[in-house]
Write a structure and sequence with these properties.
The chain is an all-alpha fold. It contains 17 helices and 5 strands. The strands form 2 sheets. It has a 3-stranded mixed beta sheet.
């Protein structure tokens, strides 16, 4: 039986996606047996099957994520800045998206989703630079044994994640960074921070590869072949660093939100506060635009979260309902918290809450149950509201559009909460186990300390790695071309001074 021609690491770290009984049944039906008629272990073999429904769903998810960025994120951010900087934000988000599409296919995909040799725990290699070896016949594994996607579909889907993550950072230092510096920083940051983070969290061999190597290990063990056992063991551990730690990240809590939030925090601290901060009016110039952008973000987020399942099945449905209820619960919580503490329920507070819930549920979308997702949204909304409404002002932190306050803090809460809410006793899907019965997906025993500690380690690593790395890259860009626009440019507004055109001609 033929093996897959190309096997890439995939999103969602360990794939809790199949943790429900129905998934285990599907996996068992699609996998080849690992025992002979006499009951002896035999090498695991498998075929690759591409389902047209999965391809259609993943294509839809890919364009939904693009919709999140342009126009969703662009309008959301654009409405929050002053009128004189609206066009600059639109241009920054749009330009980052275009640049990252090119960078991704040139070398980003290869760095994130290939074997990195001696550096494989941290980053991939360049074997698929310029998409070398990728064509219409190559496939990547999903989370079910025997089920695969066309590699181009996976490349395109992951490309949208590589686009939105650096675009999120823009909001932390909006209205004061040079456009040229932003573009240079984006390419450097993606190369040295995002691609390694994606590899460390999402690079693994896939369920059939694990079954093949685990079976080989068991056969070698039975034969007393130490060398073969070592080879199989090494293959089983040839995954990203955080994947091997057991950290769960369904759709990008660490890779996207904490990553962007910490980078944004470092950037706004290094660039300093905007001119007139605390004295002039920095109110959003168009909450109408912000509401439209937030609605498009919520709409597109279904592709972001449910698409990370890589298949169209019951776990896709779980991610969809979690994306509804976590966002709704967080939006309502933020609205009432503001109403009680500040005397009015604002539109800005409502949409901020919804985005907070979406951020928090991202790592948990296919792991938590709906009731757990509601609790996660409520907790994230309370903590993020407190930071944005009170702590940020006390610290005089000019995180212009609350990238750290929502994405950074919300991502941390979501990542740690995932380790709690994955517990089947709390309605979670359970932690996946591909090894105890090679070729099938089982649900591992849940151990609170082990699961939560893996999440805490992943969060701590992400904060340090991204914080230190981003600081170095910001400093490099500052030395080369300078980070911040001149004072007169900032006062005039970046629309005219940087781009030579206004957002509105009225």
């Amino acid at each position: 039986m033929a093996k897959t021609r190309t096997l890439s690491g995939l999103a969602a770290l360990g794939a809790a996606l199949a943790a429900l009984p129905a998934w285990a049944q599907e996996a068992a039906e699609g996998a080849a047996s690992t025992t002979s008629d006499a009951g002896a272990l035999v090498p695991y073999t498998y075929t690759t099957s591409v389902n047209n429904g999965d391809v259609a769903w993943m294509t839809t998810s890919t364009v939904l994520v693009l919709l999140m960025i342009i126009p969703g994120l662009a309008l959301f951010y654009g409405g929050l800045v002053r009128q004189k900087n609206m066009l600059s934000v639109l241009t920054q988000v749009f330009a980052i998206t275009a640049v990252m599409c090119v960078v991704w296919v040139v070398y980003g995909y290869s760095m994130a989703f290939t074997d990195g040799g001696a550096w494989n725990s941290y980053v991939g290699g360049f074997s698929k630079a310029f998409l070398s070896g990728v064509d219409v016949t190559t496939v990547v594994a999903t989370f079910t044994n025997g089920v695969y996607l066309p590699e181009y579909t996976f490349v395109a889907f992951q490309m949208t994640f590589a686009c939105i993550t650096p675009a999120l950072i823009v909001g932390a230092f909006a209205e004061r960074m040079k456009f040229s510096a932003l573009l240079l920083f984006t390419v450097l940051w993606a190369t040295f921070i995002y691609f390694p983070m994606a590899h460390m969290v999402w690079w693994w061999g896939g369920p059939d590869f694990l079954a093949e190597q685990q079976t080989a290990y068991l056969i070698a063990e039975a034969a007393g072949d130490t060398a073969a056992m070592d080879a199989a063991s090494a293959a089983l551990s040839a995954n990203g660093l955080l994947w091997n730690w057991g950290a769960l990240d369904f759709a990008g809590g660490t890779v996207v939100h904490i990553n962007a939030g910490i980078a944004g925090l470092v950037g706004c601290l290094l660039m300093g506060r905007r001119l007139g901060y605390g004295r002039e009016n920095f109110a959003p110039h168009s909450l109408t635009m912000t509401m439209i952008g937030a609605a498009l973000l919520w709409f597109g987020w279904f592709g972001f979260n449910a698409g990370s399942n890589l298949e169209a099945n019951a776990i896709t449905s779980l991610a969809v309902i979690n994306t509804f209820v976590a966002a709704a619960a967080a939006g309502v919580t933020w609205m009432f918290a503001e109403w009680i503490l500040k005397g009015h329920p604002s539109l800005l507070g409502l949409v901020s809450g919804v985005v907070t819930g979406l951020v928090a549920v991202t790592p948990a979308a296919g792991f938590a149950g709906p009731m757990g997702s509601i609790v996660l949204g409520i907790v994230a909304a309370i903590v993020c509201f407190a930071f944005v409404a009170y702590v940020k002002g006390a610290l005089r932190l000019d995180d212009s559009l609350d990238v750290f306050g929502i994405h950074g803090i919300g991502g941390i809460i979501g990542a740690i909460g995932t380790g709690i809410l994955v517990n089947p006793a709390l309605g979670g899907a359970g932690i996946p186990d591909y090894l105890s019965v090679p070729g099938t997906l089982q649900v591992a025993d849940y151990v609170f300390g082990t699961a939560v500690w893996a999440q805490i380690k992943a969060v701590a690593f992400t904060v340090v790695f991204v914080g230190v790395g981003s600081f170095i890259l910001f400093k490099v860009v500052d030395i080369l071309i300078g980070l911040r626009v001149r004072e007169e440019v900032e006062r005039e507004g970046l629309d005219l001074a940087e781009h030579g055109e206004p957002a509105y001609n009225m």
